[in-house]
């Protein structure tokens, strides 16, 4: 589990140079510049003459929190921080991976494991489970005094008042003991995953589904599961081990997708989608379009951010 605490394969080569800031949203370039300072300790590059005085690097807190909507490149920037920081001991994982580690090793052993680490990157910091949130807060509070730097992301749901300012406020409130250690960096923009996508997630008929899996199977290993059976199986596997379900798979096939009504089943499916997206596995499905898999009332409840993130990712994976 510890060895897996590195950026997902799709971000193996992520750098600040490969992050394409949208000129329409200056906060993207501004955040990139500040994270460069955070990672390297140097000032952002500045154009000018030979005799221009060097710009002093701004003082930064030991932690940065990237606050923004879906698909604005937060994970790319987080991975860039990981790759850019000249650190001997650094870790990159999702919130659920860190909490699963605490569950597996125990709190004190996890503290001992990370004590002295140079950097912890936490992707998709979750605020909906008070117990997990407080465990992470305690863990981070023990690591910062030893010199560990922190970088975290979370999501803002589209349409939230103030374009998601509440996300930053919620984060700082929930980790109140650590709030003063975090610099909040706001990233505006549109979901890049949806820019080239027209309409819903793609749902195939039976013939097209069979052909798609046959084509993919000629070049790799594909899965072919009944949607209901997969959702039921997820209940018997800890979410931290979902990555093993897709190990060696090059494409995911789901038959007879239906809308999920059970909150627990829906949240397990969200965790599975996150792992599939990290691995960039195309998804082929029949039945209901996967962007309609969550019941409408779920999209207005406390887990709204998770479901909307999953919909964005499912849309992208069915078009890949």
Question: What features would you describe in this structure?
Answer:
The chain is of the alpha/beta class and 320 residues long. It has 2 domains: 9-190, Rossmann fold (3-Layer(aba) Sandwich); 194-319, no CATH class. The protein has 11 helices and 8 strands. Strands 2-3-4-1-5 form a 5-stranded parallel beta sheet, with helices on both faces. Strands 6-7-8 form a 3-stranded parallel beta sheet. Strand 7 (252-257), helix 10 (263-278) and strand 8 form a beta-alpha-beta unit. Helix 3 (95-105) packs across helix 4, helix 4 runs parallel beside helix 5 (130-143) and helix 10 crosses helix 11 (304-319). The longest helix has 16 residues, at 263-278. It is globular, with a radius of gyration of 20 Å. The two termini are 29 Å apart. The model is unreliable at 157-165 (pLDDT under 50). Keywords: ATP-binding, Cell cycle, Cell division, Nucleotide-binding. It comes from Microbacterium flavum.
Task: Tell me the CATH architecture of the largest domain.
Answer: 3-Layer(aba) Sandwich
Silhouette:
globular
Tell me the number of strands: 8
Biggest sheet strand line-up: 2-3-4-1-5
- Low confidence ranges: 157-165
CATH class of the largest domain: Alpha Beta
pLDDT averaged residue by residue: 85
Helix and strand succession? Answer: HEHEHHEHEHEHEHHEHEH
Strand content: 5-15%
Number of domains: 2
Alpha-carbon Rg, integer: 20 Å
